[in-house]
Amino acid sequence: xxxxxxxxxxxxxxxxxxxxxxxxxxxxxxxxxxxxxxxxxxxxxxxxxxxxxxxxxxxxxxxxxxxxxxxxxxxxxxxxxxxxxxxxxxxxxxxxxxxxxxxxxxxxxxxxxxxxxxxxxxxxxxxxxxxxxxxxxxxxxxxxxxxxxxxxxxxxxxxxxxxx
Length: 164
Prior knowledge:
CATH architecture: 3-Layer(aba) Sandwich
Largest sheet: 6 strands, antiparallel
Radius of gyration: 16 Å
Order of helices and strands: HHEHEHEEHEE
CATH superfamily: NADH Oxidase
Number of domains: 1
Number of helices: 5
Number of strands: 6
CATH topology: NADH Oxidase
Structural class: alpha+beta
Distance between the termini: 29 Å
């Protein structure tokens, strides 16, 4: 649980590859996430091709940091699931699990929003040649952090309200 209190958004990476075993652990963590009705509406594209990573880095004005990552994981959501109103929430749980596992493995990542923006989803669809039955939820560049910094303490007792 230590990763909850030390994980930070990582956008700069060392120029070294990430071991396949660590990527699998991150993916397993994502697939261990809860989902509404256990629908598990996710699939994951693991991108290591530098040209495709470059295209993904241009998917939005905020995704440029992905260009220098050795790996970009692209969580996608199945359009046909039996509780679609919860699908994006399910994907957020999966991404959080992956983020925490990446931190526990000494890696860094950040979730770059693709959904709900249609232009961004289309850019990722083109870059990955995604089938029509899924849409991109986000981009998760993964790698060894170029720098280490502490997480801010965000606890604010003024935001806690007890109802007795």
